[in-house]
Amino acid sequence: MSKEVTEEGEASQPARDYVDPPPEPLFDAEELTVWSFYRAVIAEFIATLLFLYITVATVIGYNKQTDHPCETVGLLGVAWAFGGMIFILVYSTAGISGGHINPAVTFGLFLVRRVSLIRAISYMVAQCLGAICGVGLAKGIMKNFYDEFGGGANTVFPTYSKGTALGAEIIGTFVLVYTVFSATDPKRNARDSHVPVLAPLSIGFAVFLVHLATIPITGTGINPARSFGPAVIYNSGKVWGDQWIFWLGPFMGALAAALYHQHVMRATTIKALGSFTANPTN
């Protein structure tokens, strides 16, 4: 009798139209034996190289602006360059590596167990190396202007304190990483078939809007690789002195976004507690 009641109860409940992917193992040595892993790492390297080349070249072109405001793309154009490149590169690499192109994004996805520790570290190394190569390429092509116009490096502008800059980086990265979580949520993907196409667009717009808000403060980092590449190639004391802000801020923002998405929006903790109280044993 109890079995029949249980079966009827299960049948009356609507079936879930999505399945949460199982968490990735913390350490999966088998990844190192398959080509798809190395292909993904290469994709992250090349994507970050292209991202830094285009965006740093745009920043240097913007800094060349003289008394004629229409001579360069302007601040709005710089923001579009960053957001547009993220849209293009995420769209192009999402099916290969997940389209991270940012150590902070990789860190956030690692915290919610969407990537393993091995993959997270490999991605971050590839992203930083790609950023260095991309900025080096930009310097090689624009060598007459690279050093003169700041090398596209991130620094805290003199009118702002380091605390303000750190807060801007934390909030900006939170916006970006939270957008990544929301746009790639398996529940939303299952119920809205158009989301996989719009996910890169929403992520690119998040990058664009954050740049509009924080370019006057820090030049906008929200991506440790984006800040590290120009720091290595430009190699200025001021740039290295501010570098910690562009690592600590994005990682703190990614941590906050991961906690908010998992424990508030997805209610992971509440669901776990509910599983202990729903059917108590005698």
Automatic annotation (TrEMBL):
Region (Disordered): 1-23
Pfam families: MIP
Subcellular location: Membrane
Main location: membrane
Keywords: Membrane, Transmembrane, Transmembrane helix, Transport
InterPro entries registered for this protein in UniProt: Aquaporin-like, Aquaporin_transptr, MIP, MIP_CS
Recorded topology in the membrane: Multi-pass membrane protein
Segments traversing the membrane: 37-61, 73-96, 116-138, 197-217, 244-261
Organism domain of life: Eukaryota
A GO cellular component annotation in the UniProt record: membrane
Keyword Transmembrane assigned: yes
Entries under PROSITE patterns matching the protein: MIP
Gene3D superfamilies xrefs: Glycerol uptake facilitator protein
GO molecular function term, any single one: channel activity
Listed NCBIfam families: MIP
Record family assignment: Belongs to the MIP/aquaporin (TC 1.A.8) family. PIP (TC 1.A.8.11) subfamily.
Protein name per UniProt: Aquaporin
Annotated organism of origin: Carpinus fangiana
